[in-house]
């Protein structure tokens, strides 16, 4: 049971002078002429068409599982040309196609834009993204994805976070609730559920019974690092073997304080500027090695690193060094 992505190309009208420049966006002019021709207006011979109230847009949507004709879905509208703002615009009828080229929904309606832009002669401000908007329930489903769930005899349960322990717990919990060997683990991300012979209820009723089972998922030991923002996220199962850690930085500060030297009153000479330079070196000599014992918990690890007086940037380097030494019992994922 999954969603299907839809995409379409359309026109937004009713913009207050913030649409595409037809000179810079020929596809907008061609689309506008084709739309007017379908409505019975011939503009093919007009060489001086000028309007900035129309914008070419790409419309995207997700078709939910089991969506039926007549259901409404949300759509996202994004500019394709040099339009500056979609506020006040109305999307014209736009077919939304699937990967197979078939039309599954049709979108139309006024666009809601969260961002805005304002400009003057000497300054401008932009909040959010005014060239992208959303139409709540803006598309009507015209075609459904055929899928007869009730006629199935076997289904696969796909785990969002693949894990051997979690998949095994799911299979055991289902077999215990149904009182039979109906579930089996194929791999860390898939559990197969087979409707047993003689089972009076349908597969849908079986799924309804098992979806209320409570499973405690098993999380892998992982450290996630975002080096750009200095964010570190560590799982509860992260463990560290016995290791000694020392952290220090060499800091050199050079301060220039020039001094003016003047001759005595009525004396001979001229005023000169004498350089004065102060050089200070801090090698963090007062810091010592810190011992992290074997099998410490996440809280002990954080407390030990904080006791060294280091920031997130240095902590990232230390965690990577501990991993390189083989003392960090977890995977490091750098975003």
Task: Tell me the layout of helices and strands.
Elements: E1 4-13, H1 26-38, E2 55-63, E3 72-79, E4 90-97, E5 103-110, E6 116-119, E7 124-127, E8 132-141, E9 154-158, H2 164-178, E10 183-187, E11 190-194, H3 203-210, E12 222-226, E13 231-234, E14 239-240, E15 243-245, E16 251-256, E17 259-261, E18 272-274, E19 277-282, E20 290-292, H4 298-307, H5 312-324, E21 328-329, E22 331-334
Strand order of the largest sheet: 1-2-3-8-5-4
Q: If you compute it from the alpha carbons, what radius of gyration comes out, rounded to the nearest whole angstrom?
A: 33 Å
Summing up helix and strand content along with how strands pair, one would put the structural category as: alpha+beta
User: How many helices in DSSP terms?
Assistant: 5
Helix content: 10-25%
Overall body shape: flat
GO biological process, one term: bacterial-type flagellum-dependent cell motility
Organism: Iodidimonas nitroreducens
Family: Belongs to the FlgI family.
Subunit structure: The basal body constitutes a major portion of the flagellar organelle and consists of four rings (L,P,S, and M) mounted on a central rod.
């Amino acid at each position: 049971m999954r969603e299907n992505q839809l995409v379409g190309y359309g026109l937004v009208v009713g913009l207050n002078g913030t649409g595409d420049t037809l000179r810079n966006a020929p596809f907008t002019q061609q689309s506008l002429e084709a739309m007017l021709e379908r409505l019975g207006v011939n503009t093919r011979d007009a060489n001086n068409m000028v309007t900035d109230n129309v914008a070419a847009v790409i419309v995207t949507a997700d078709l939910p599982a089991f969506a039926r004709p007549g259901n409404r879905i949300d759509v996202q509208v994004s500019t394709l040309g040099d339009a500056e703002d979609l506020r006040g615009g109305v999307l014209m009828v736009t077919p939304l196609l699937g990967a197979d080229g078939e039309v599954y929904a049709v979108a139309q309606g006024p666009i809601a834009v969260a961002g805005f832009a304002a400009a003057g002669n000497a300054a401008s401000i932009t909040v959010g993204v005014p060239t992208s908007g959303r139409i709540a329930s803006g598309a009507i489903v015209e075609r459904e994805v055929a899928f007869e769930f009730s006629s199935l005899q076997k289904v696969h349960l796909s785990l969002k976070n693949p894990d051997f322990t979690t998949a095994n717990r799911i299979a055991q919990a289902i077999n215990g609730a149904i009182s039979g060997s109906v579930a089996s683990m194929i791999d860390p991300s898939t559990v197969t559920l087979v409707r047993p012979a003689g089972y009076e209820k349908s597969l849908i009723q079986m799924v309804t019974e098992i979806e209320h089972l409570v499973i405690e998922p098993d999380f892998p030991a992982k450290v996630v690092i975002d080096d750009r923002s200095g964010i570190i996220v560590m799982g509860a199962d992260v463990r560290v073997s016995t290791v000694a850690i020392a952290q220090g930085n060499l800091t050199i500060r050079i301060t220039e304080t020039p001094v003016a030297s003047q001759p005595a009153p009525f004396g001979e000479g001229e005023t000169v500027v004498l350089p004065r330079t102060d050089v200070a070196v801090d090698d963090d000599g007062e810091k010592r090695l810190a011992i992290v014992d074997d099998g410490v918990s996440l809280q002990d690890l954080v407390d030990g690193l904080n006791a060294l007086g280091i920031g997130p940037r240095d902590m990232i380097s230390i965690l990577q060094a501990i991993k390189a030494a083989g003392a960090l019992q977890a995977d490091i994922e750098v975003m």
